[in-house]
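Batch 3, record 17
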Amino acid sequence: MKHGENMAGALGAQDSPLDLDDLGEELFEEVPRGDSGEADRIVRPCLTYWQDAWLRLRKNKIAMIGLGLLAFYIIMSLVGPLMVSYDFRAIDEAQMDSGPGPLHWFGTDTLGRDMWARVWVGARVSLSIGFLAASLNALIGVCVGGVSGYFGGRLDMAIMRLIDVLSGIPSLIVAILVMVVMGAGIAPLVIAMIIVGWVGSARLVRGQMLQLKNQEYVLAARKLGASDARIIFRHLIPNTIGLILTNVTMAVPYAIFNEAFLSFIGLGVQPPAASWGLLARYGAQSFRVAPWQLFIPAFFISTTMLSLYLLGDGLRDALDPKLRS
Amino acid sequence: MTAEAARAAAAPLAEARDLKLYFHLAGGAVLKAVDGVSLSIAEGRTVGLVGESGCGKSTTGRALVGMYEPTAGSVLFKGKDIGSLDKAERGEFARHAQMIFQDPYSSLNPRMTVGDIVGEGIDIHRLYAGRERMERIWELLGLVGLAKEHANRFPHEFSGGQRQRIGIARSLAVEPRFIVCDEPISALDVSIQSQIVNLLASLQARLGLTYLFISHDLSMVKYISETVCVMYLGALAETAPSEELYERPLHPYTQALLSAIPIADPRAERARQRILLSGDVPSPVDPPPGCRFAPRCPRAMGRCREAAPELRDVGGGHRVACHAVG
Amino acid sequence: MPNSEAKGSRAGSKLIEVEGLRVSFSTYGGTVKAVRGISLSVSKGECLAVVGESGCGKSVTAQTIMRIIPSPPAAIEGSVRLEGRELLTLPERKMRSLRGSEIGMIFQDPMTSLDPTMPIGKQITEGLREHDRSVSRAQARERAVEVLATVGIPEPERQLKRYAYEFSGGMRQRVVIAMAVVCKPKLLIADEPTTALDVTTQAQILDLMRSLKDELGTAVLLITHDMGVVSNMADRIAVFYAGEVVEEGRAEEVFESPAHPYTAALLRSRPRLDRDRNQCLVSIPGSPPDLFAPPPGCAFAPRCGLALEICRRARPAGFALGESHAASCWLYHAKALARHGAPSRGKLEMEACRDR
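Prediction for the assembled complex:
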């Protein structure tokens, strides 16, 4: 029995800077009992939910690329048309169908209109319709899905059946019907997109409500006497916002695509306004002669959608409360 | 003293009388979660409710704070049936009967600061405002061993034990008299469990609280409670003062439960005689008639499968529900 | 009562030897040093219990022995030897043939260890035939029935066709145990095998595991946080804290004379059923350290009531307290012993946490 013998190998290696063969006596003094609060102290700085989410998003390079690209496009949509002297509607018969060059950076279309200006003016329309439609869908979806999920029972069943019916209707048919009734244009386009489009976020929010309303903190709030309104606004919605934001971000590309498609088939944005879909429509007509007229708007549509998906993916991870360290 | 006050003073603080909670499942089956439970908790005391999964202890606890409405039977608070209270009394009951939950990771809203979480009860009932409110919140945090600085932080920055303390502070904010602790330590590490248990005991001494301590951990329940009630599949098997239950367990289930609990002492542990039950705890859906424990009971007789035994007094505050006893 | 000195003599019957194991994970928030230099060994036929609370590294250690931790992103250093063979550098193919046949593993949640889409009979026979191609279907089926009977499943023939969801928790865990022992492994690693079970079911499962160990001579590495379960099964104990082994010894030694303040506090923080209500429960204030940035000295020092100056500066080595008992604590350094004497049980328990 050898007390104090140093079995360096048996219980683990050590990596201290002290010289273990010559430890000073003072090292074996008892440490005076200090504040025990030290054991409870929190070391890391305090971050709100949004600060934490932003830091996490920043670390995700791919999401940041998406965000950067999107921001770039938004800025260009505002500034781009101002960078050239041409008006996007100005017809120039001398310059019809000319390819990209020093005069016209993106070339011109069949009527000699500057593509650069048209692309960026079109960006304004496409992006704003996309964000608007996605946000309206989310807003309606949150209200309907929230009420349905929280209150449950017959109300929930009725709403779910309505959602089932609406999901079954092809959205294109709805869009055509709306256009027939209201005529073509931006407002009917947005209306057509939201009539059926809110269903996805309603389902999502309802699912989240069903899950959250049985969480113990909701039960605790109820036990303390919280009213339904307080529970919905202080407990359920703040914990759903992350999901909603991600959902909106992922819904925008879908809305942009819808607008592009409907404009492409002639039902959406009408001339003289410009949108990427409309540009693609004209571009397709002169595809053999001037392929850039189709490629350029198509390129912007695709890269915008891609950047939004990348950003949305990153947001989903950044906003997930479970992944907080 | 009015007749009503006299009645309230003499009665136990919280009581369940032949409480039944049945849930109807899809497909017509009936889940008899609680099937005729009667127990009472005197003011300032701790009663422990122990049992394995599916025995209905959590459901009983929730019914006692008014979270579930009884299918049959009654829940009484200060001598009055809570189903017959008027609006004002109902509000008072809701404040005075509080609950501490099991999972420290889902019992706090991750988007609220600790200060707001603890202060929620204060806000809902408008007990304090402004500076006073903040001071009351600090006071509550101090009561559970946390610091003022913690009020600005978020739940995810705290450990399980600290979160449970925040949950305790939250329920203390409305100045309750009776607290149902529903498995408050099961999700915590062993060395933290004793922190919380010691905290609960000291709070009881300081504030005169009354507890119903629900757990599957009989060692802890016996330690913290004066009286222990053992539940099995929705019914009470046995109830007695803690020491008495350990020394003279009469119900075969209690005996098996006690013998199954390992003791942290190798020599004692290996010398023990075990009573091993056959099979697992069955599901509480559509139970067979007669005593719930009969299928696994080493002492089951014919009578046991015909009629469920009543809870009978055998003296000294000890009651057993078993045909083979007394 | 098992005589661990005869079986576990340090001479040559070591089945598993872990030396200087270090495991780190790189995550969003930094590098987590989950295991910070542990060494332990399990002898043939012996049960070593690894005890510790959440985050102490016990599960990670077990999973590293089984090589089921993907190695990037984890960084693994050190050595794990099975009967002299180094496992950490073994090619995956060879490791696969070891798993199941020489080392069996039981996890905490039986529902995730069993494939919900395959009848249990098939899961057992598949495991058998994977490790021994010469076994025919009929033979494998017979063996499966045998092993199900051994683990106490009634009417094993009929149960072969059943799916996992048709069994209750305790029965499922028995099936998992059957799968783990069907190839008669030399070592069984059980990671919290009874934590998810009711206490009466737990007693049955522990009983089963003990009898299997005695019958088959399997060594068991039992990972748990429950000291009661440990005292039921273990021959030797290793106490983990913050990724290190803080104490190690025979079960009786550690329970009766715990040397490390953490072990002493842990033993006193649970109420004993056979003691009255006046027993005092020790509670250790604070929480285990953040493994993103473990403290430079002893990991337990911030919570320890007996801390010395050196405890904050340097990590203690293991100090022998007997032939088989060792503790990683500066209190047992020659100079500390000379100055303060060996800490008594009373002092350890009462002072193992600050201001009780």
